[in-house]
Prior knowledge:
With 510 residues, the protein is of the alpha/beta class. Helix content is 39%, strand content 20%. The chain has helices at residues 15-24, 65-81, 89-105, 107-118, 122-142, 178-191, 206-218, 232-241, 254-266, 291-303, 323-335, 355-370, 407-410, 426-434, 449-458, 491-497, and strands at residues 31-33, 36-38, 45-49, 56-61, 149-150, 157-165, 168-172, 195-199, 225-227, 247-251, 271-275, 281-284, 315-319, 374-377, 381-382, 393-394, 397-400, 417-423, 438-439, 441-445, 463-466, 481-482, 499-507.
Amino acid sequence: MTSPAPSSGTAPQSLDDWRALADALRPESRAYIADDFVDAVSGETFTSVNPATGQTLAEVASCDEADAEAAVTVARRAFEQGAWSRLAPGSRKVVLLRLADLLEANRHELALLDSLDMGKPVSSALGDMAGAIGCLRHHAESIDKLYGEVAPTAEDSLGLVLRQPLGVVASIVPWNFPMMMTAWKIAPALAAGNSVILKPSEKSPLSALRLAQLTRDAGLPTGVFQVLPGFGHTVGKALALSMGVDCLAFTGSTGVGKQLMQYAGQSNLKRVYLECGGKSPNLVFGDCKDLDRVAEHAAAAIFHNQGEVCIAGSRLLVDNTIRDTFVDKVLAAAERMQPGDPLDPDSFMGAMVDRTQHQRVLDYIRQGVAEGAILRTGGQAMQGEGVNGQGLFIQPTVFDAVTDNMTIGREEIFGPVLAVFGFDTEEEALRLANDSDYGLAAGVWSQDIDRIMRVSRRLQSGQVFVNNWADMDQTVPFGGVKQSGNGRDKSHHSLEEYSDLKTVWMTLDP
Ligand code: NAD
């Protein structure tokens, strides 16, 4: 079934508007292979459930190895035929800009699909759409402005350095920002001329299938973009082990990232770019000017998207000279960030993605209490005000007096749980911040520019936010160090991941 796109002319404003749009949706739920929507070869399906209400959204095709093989064959053929891979970059740009326009025209529907599928507030999903569209436009616009190189060789030779697409790219993405994570992967990969197979998370497949319809409308040639919904251990693993896939572009957990590197080694040594988990430290020094503003940001850094954020500021490291005052302000901010119906435009937090994740977060909270951290607020499951009492919500939760040997101070919880640590010196703050397997993001709040630069340089992290949390732009790279991964999404640097350098060496007769 295809979904009737809600008209972009009637932008939903209220909870009732969004509910009306949701009632009208008939999401596409089949795999997208070679320009067609098809059932999985096995005929198997899995159920997509709205975690805010417990209601079934769709029975979705559950792809496995057979579907992966079919899609890889089609993608390879498309790449070899060259209708996209050898198309002039300026012509690829035109198609991708058309796709961006289609995403823009259908942004409410796409945001709604993500909100229904994984529980995030629809207003936040709309913000993701702006990021996804901006990402697509950025890479579309840049691809015909990148030049190759002529090497500085002697006169009797010419060394040309060309950039060429890799071939077949499999993008395996998570559920926490379905459309935005997808755009960060597929925009540079398509712009560079690759054939792309997208494997959305089994917890949020619906927007990816709507995107497939839009790529067809935009005029991407057959086989250049395909979508295989299904589970990681079936279709995801098959793509990762495939001899016909040249690159795995992955966003997800560190554990699965490690498996993908093994699969690459067991198969064709495909390149593997990983954007993995985090346990990001947010350092608040005693010289901060506006503690109310800092507290508001520190709370949003962990409670935005229900804490289901790779760069959640989940470890709050506070100078002991201001800790009591500051934590009180964070508690007040948390109070204003309670979960609500994801379709209510005023909700700051929505539902946890599914029952497993809901239980996992509650287990961590219990463990925090058992290990001696002080629970200052939250810690309880909620049914969800104004929904139907079946939702998987959790209160914003703050633990104080966390130490670096506690589980909640070390492991990625991926939920609305903040761990507050105290520190006495800058050196101690840095030691605590860097004492982690992860290195995705870090924050520094201070007015002292010397301290800011000293600390920023020494933080083991892919990005450091100074006097903000998670301010970003399409023009700057995003990625981690240590076990947070090795890839860089966004900016020109991500284009480099989806192309090979080729040297053409000519001997000349001077
Ligand atoms: P996950 O690792 O469980 O799943 C991610 C994707 O991998 C899904 O599509 C899943 O089906 C697939 N997968 C699972 N097992 C697989 C296997 N054996 N072979 C191939 N594919 C497999 O992660 P998740 O729960 O979907 O997402 C949450 C995680 O993602 C968190 O750790 C979060 O920090 C991370 N994340 C990182 C970033 C970043 O940019 N660094 C961004 C968003 C999320």
